[in-house]
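Quick one, tokens below:
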């Protein structure tokens, strides 16, 4: 028994000694020289018309370690003064030391960092080197002065098309998926919504995607809000007017309701009484318009559908009071039934007089309101 114990003890000591010698041969990672980063230019005004052109070119030197070892490299962006929280990373190529970002890519980085467009903002950038997935090394940050732009919502939100026999009278083309009203997906989740205008009762329409007939969908012939791709029939708008439509593309359901929009409030001649002052659809501009309405400065106003409060167009929040509108300046407006409004805010003007009112409802991701003093 004693001999067995001695043998086990010697074996354990030998294993420990061997392990120590093997560990002594492992490389020890140490940083001898920090990486560096530079950019050209450092003052950038981003432009959507040159979205795919280079906006900024970054040049870097890799960090130097005591052991020759490979690392993954990133550009890390953050708003100045936030200590890179939040941050946005862009992966860098392993075999070169220059890299360019386009106007669109830079603008998307600003959006990810919640940096407001159309104003000069200070953005810090640093080289991030990751070794063995756990060791992280940074260069000293550099600062860019960047002016972003408000991206065109028609280009960044998915959409489906609503071709039909009604579309020609609304300023588009009958039964043409590439020239018709669209429904957009603000959540980019295959759920689409938006407005169309129908001139004649019993007009028919369908839903398509990619502005083509491939994969089009229609009613399952029960007219209970179910869609089919094969064996379908045309959907129908029983009466003339404005329709608000919601489509779950993957769930194969849809809903369409009449939503004739009007203006109401004690800033208007009729006050809070019904009927509201109704908008008229203009097929030449593809907008909903009130040609002229007298507004006072003491009252407020909203926009709603069907003389009812279930669907209201309002500012996003009443945190700062009612939104004051400037003549000729377009603002984003929000539909309360879509869950985009906080509280019950209204609009007002500071100069009394007659105004033209225009609602641009072509994109549900960015409804737009413009008042112009006549």
């Amino acid at each position: 028994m004693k001999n067995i114990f001695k043998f086990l003890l010697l074996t354990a000591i030998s294993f420990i000694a061997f392990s120590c010698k093997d560990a002594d041969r492992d490389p020890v990672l140490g940083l001898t020289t920090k990486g560096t980063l530079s950019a050209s230019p450092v003052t950038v005004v981003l432009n959507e018309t040159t979205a795919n052109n280079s906006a900024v070119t970054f040049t870097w030197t890799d960090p130097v370690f005591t052991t020759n070892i490979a690392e993954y490299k990133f550009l890390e962006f953050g708003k100045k003064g936030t200590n890179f929280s939040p941050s946005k990373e862009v992966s860098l190529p392993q075999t070169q030391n220059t890299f360019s970002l386009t106007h669109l890519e830079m603008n998307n980085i600003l959006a990810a960092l919640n940096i407001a467009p159309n104003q000069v903002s200070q953005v810090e950038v640093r080289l991030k080197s990751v070794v063995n997935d756990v060791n992280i090394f940074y260069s000293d940050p550099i600062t860019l002065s960047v002016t972003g732009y408000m991206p065109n919502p028609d280009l960044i939100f998915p959409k489906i098309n609503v071709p039909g026999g009604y579309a020609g009278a609304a300023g588009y083309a009958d039964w043409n998926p590439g020239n018709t009203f669209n429904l957009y997906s603000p959540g980019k989740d295959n759920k689409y919504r938006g407005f169309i205008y129908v001139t004649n009762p019993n007009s028919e329409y369908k839903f398509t995607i990619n502005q083509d007939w491939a994969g089009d969908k229609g009613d399952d012939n029960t007219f209970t809000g179910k869609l089919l791709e094969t064996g379908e029939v045309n959907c129908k708008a029983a009466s003339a007017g404005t329709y608000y439509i919601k489509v779950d593309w993957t769930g194969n359901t849809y809903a369409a309701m009449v939503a004739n929009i009007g203006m109401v409030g004690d800033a208007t001649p009729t006050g809070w009484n019904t009927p509201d002052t109704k908008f008229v659809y203009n097929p030449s501009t593809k907008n909903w318009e009130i040609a002229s309405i007298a507004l006072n400065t003491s009252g407020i106003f909203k926009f709603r559908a069907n003389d009812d409060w279930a669907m209201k167009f309002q500012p996003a929040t009443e945190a700062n009071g009612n939104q004051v509108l400037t003549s000729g300046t377009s603002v984003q407006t929000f539909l309360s039934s879509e869950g985009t409004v906080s509280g019950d805010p209204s609009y007002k003007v500071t100069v009394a007089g007659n105004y033209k009112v225009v609602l641009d409802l072509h994109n549900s991701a960015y409804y737009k309101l413009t008042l112009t003093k006549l």
